[in-house]
Design brief:
The protein contains 16 helices and seven strands. It has 343 residues and is α+β, with helices and mostly antiparallel strands. Among the domains are: 89 residues, Helicase, Ruva Protein, domain 3; 61 residues, no CATH class. The strands form two sheets. It has a five-stranded antiparallel beta sheet with strand order 4-6-7-3-5. It has a two-stranded antiparallel sheet with strand order 1-2. Strand 6 and strand 7 form a beta hairpin. It is globular and about 65 Å long. The N terminus is likely disordered.
Amino acid sequence: MSLVSRKVIKLSVFLFILNFPFVALSESDFSNNSEVEVLIDELVLENELDRQMLIEIFSKAQLKDSVLKLMTRPAEKIKPWFEYRDIFVSKSRIKNGLLFYQKNIDILSRAEKRFGVPPEIIVSIIGVETSYGTNTGSYLVIDALSTLAFHYPSELKNYSRRKTYFTKELKNYLVLTEKQQLDPLALRGSYAGAMGFGQFMPSSYRNYAIDFDGDGRIDIWENIADAIGSVANYLAKHGWVEGEEIVVPADFLGNAEENWLNAGLKPQKTVSELVAMEFTTKTAVPPSSLATAIALEGEEGAEYWMGFKNFYVITRYNHSTMYALSVYQLAEAIKEKLIVAGK
């Protein structure tokens, strides 16, 4: 190898490391990995999966550096609310949401009747997650989950908890593909291993995905009925209350640094308690309702919102205030367009 070639390689590696918070790993398979061997033993013992089949799967799974890099850049942590919102509550997403609603109105109505979840909320979640199924992810799920289970970056926050989480999701993935007779080396999803229209993680698939059209199989990748029914079922199982408020605009004249603002996703204080602290809303809501006080960075200063149980339920889908508020606002925009269009 020439001296010039060596210098080019060294410079390339140096520039990559500057833009990557950890040393890059070669994209190899997971053979001869002690953690993989432990996982295989557990799946054989606990779930009666075939050992040779698992060995074959992991010999073909590939470690992906790009997955690790993406894991360090969640949009919620690097964008203020007003920029985050514009990504998901855009004109194109509203327009396509209206079309998706109109095309699938019968399925959505059936889901609302069975689960009590408004159709626009179901549509909005699918819109935020995958742009109504047009972007369900390009990573092989086995690659994404294996990478995160066995090579989750140790310098990231909650390393141990997150590594354990992805290991459990990998186990769930291998069990569900066996039970559903799906090819574990063929299914694609996000860089975190989320799948289908509604981006279900494997454990969510196993617990909440349903056969909503009665064809005898669950398909959240191509079957829109199953995808819609599964999202509605997920929200219902997490406590959605039919007809109750989700989130309302609020006013606050006090100090935006108060420690009870953005104190947690789960509602802890009553509306009357918040009103006593000058956190008010013009929307008529029962004083005894539990709510959470939300403060976000708007384009022209702080925005205040009062979130209720159904808002909290949306955060069970993604544990982010900005995510849930984007879902709500996109849903409201779609509903407004439906009214104008006369459904």
